[in-house]
Design a protein that fits this description.
By secondary structure, this protein is an alpha/beta fold. It has a single domain, classed as 3-Layer(aba) Sandwich (Rossmann fold), CATH 3.40.50.300. The protein binds adenosine-5'-triphosphate (ATP) and D-gluconic acid. The site of adenosine-5'-triphosphate has 17 residues, from α1, α5 and α7.
């Protein structure tokens, strides 16, 4: 399922898997990395510890909390000579603009879409993650789905990660990359 008119991928490939907590960024990122050979970076690992502690305490991040983290994410994209798959919530358009500012206007986005019920259930079943289920509603409230001008596609999370990865690979033209 694609919502953009024309999708394209930069060379080297830089692509952001975005969406609310628990939508499957890490799982799909691992599958897409295995399929394409492009490294995966989880933006969760780039948060300042203060942000992680805030979320662990059940307090939603503000814009001010997110800007330094988004700058780190932008630097990771810009510095990725061989390309990068970044799993990053990127909930607001201004956040995605910030990433595009560093990585280029042709930065590609994939919005992983699922219902609150499905994601809630998956988050409840997940172990050893700092993000409390109670923050999911604030994630949805903050979310601004990408527009048609954002080189973004939307994919349903109702199928397994490997299948989502295959859909992403065929929707974007993966220059110079071979399917495994
Ligand atoms: N397509 C899928 N089908 C079934 N289960 C999935 C799918 N994608 C992810 N899951 C499961 O849902 C849970 C959340 O997925 P994951 O941790 O990948 O999401 P995330 O977006 O990276 O979360 P966060 O942003 O909170 O770190 C995990 O337990 C994962 O195994
Ligand atoms: O922008 C945000 O609020 C954060 O990035 C969150 O989305 C979490 O880091 C992530 O989803 C972990 O569950």
């Amino acid at each position: 399922m694609s919502t953009a008119v024309s999708l394209h991928l930069s060379d080297p490939p830089r692509i952001v898997l975005m969406g609310v907590s628990g939508c499957g960024k890490s799982s799909v990122g691992a599958a897409l990395s295995a399929l394409t050979g492009v490294p995966y970076q989880d933006a969760d690992d780039l948060h300042p510890s203060a942000n992680v502690e805030k979320m662990r305490a059940g307090i939603a991040l503000t814009d001010d909390d997110r800007w330094p983290w988004l700058t780190t994410c932008a630097e990771a994209l810009a510095g990725s000579a061989g390309g990068l798959i970044l799993g990053c919530s990127a909930l607001k358009r201004i956040y995605r603009d910030h990433l595009r500012g560093a990585a280029g206007r042709d930065l590609a986005f994939v919005h992983l879409i699922g219902t609150r019920e499905v994601i809630l259930e998956r988050m409840r079943a997940r172990v050893n993650h700092y993000m409390p289920v109670s923050l999911l509603d604030s994630q949805f409230a903050t979310l601004e789905p990408p527009g048609e001008d954002e080189n973004a596609m939307a994919v349903s999370i109702d199928v397994p990660p490997a299948q989502i990865a295959a859909q992403i690979r065929s929707a974007y033209a993966w220059q110079g990359l071979q399917a495994s």
